[in-house]
Amino acid sequence: MRAPRTAVSLLAAFALTGCGAKVAEGPDDNTAKASGRYPVTVENCGLKTTYDKAPQRVVTNDVNMAEIMFALGLEDHMAGYVAPDYKGDRTSVPWKDGYSKVEQLSDKEITKELVLDAKADWVFAGWNYGFGEGSGVTPDALKKLGVGSYVLTESCHNGSGGKARGVMPPLEALYTDLENLGRIFAVEDRAAKLIADSKKQVAAAQAQVPRDGARPKVFLYDSGQDKPTTAGAFAAPHDIIAKAGGENVMKDLKDSWAEVGWETVVERAPDVIVINNYGDVSAEQKKKFLTSYPPLADVPAVRNGRIFVLDYADLVESPRNPAAVAALAGYLKGVRGR
């Protein structure tokens, strides 16, 4: 655990960020203003925010949001990233250099102290991806410290009266964030190319999916033994499964990530289980549990050994989502051929 800062240092940080101290403008800001690109207004989770310049010291929470910034070439705008519990592959993605250019500030959850220590002027996180009422790290709390924020669209609260998340189809959420960030940081061309390339990769995968015949039923297993956490209609796996030619057995769950009962999984009899690989419990350990848990013995996916593993960063909103569609489409094509 990080040592708490003294009251004096916290007040000093607040004075610098909260009283309108002007951050020195870099070349990108001057170029953008000269071209008339600022001010820009974007809508995020239903709220509109106007930017007079691009944030200069961004802290991101979780590997997916760091990689969104890296994929847009925005490393120079970052003060650092937080990547809780992530032990997955960081070397095979086109934007891997971002990991050597930007400091990892913590492998724990983001905190106000961490944000202030980094002299951040903007935090890119999500509800249950760093933002949470319980932790006290929220957009409103950061605003009181003079720090701006942006909420990952996959994680937007959907206004259903509870904590359910998701306001649009998952890949649309990714494209929305890429477009918004492109405007905020005056890199619209980079964002447009990344979106176009992503859509092309997804379309190529979809072109391999047979138009007729039954679609394999797929259950996303994130974690949990008493009750599994899975992906509903507003989490990235829903679109990944659908566009890969499968059917998410939890498509009626109007949330992003949520717990369900094993009896529901058994009743819906998935043909394939996709494991979300992250954290201290390995994919192999998760597979061992699934294949040895008696209630699942007659589920087709378990009975036939159809268990596929994808990385955490593939399965949360991130620029890896299109490649995950292609990978799962290839696997499901083999399932149909059996």
TrEMBL record:
Residues 57-338 form the Fe/B12 periplasmic-binding domain. Pfam families: Peripla_BP_2. It comes from the Bacteria. Residues 1-24 form the signal peptide. SUPFAM superfamilies: Helical backbone' metal receptor. Gene3D superfamilies: Nitrogenase molybdenum iron protein domain. The lineage of its organism: Bacteria, Bacillati, Actinomycetota, Actinomycetes, Kitasatosporales. This is ABC transporter substrate-binding protein. InterPro entries: ABC_Transporter_SBP, ABC_transptr_periplasmic_BD. Keywords: Signal. Belongs to the bacterial solute-binding protein 8 family.
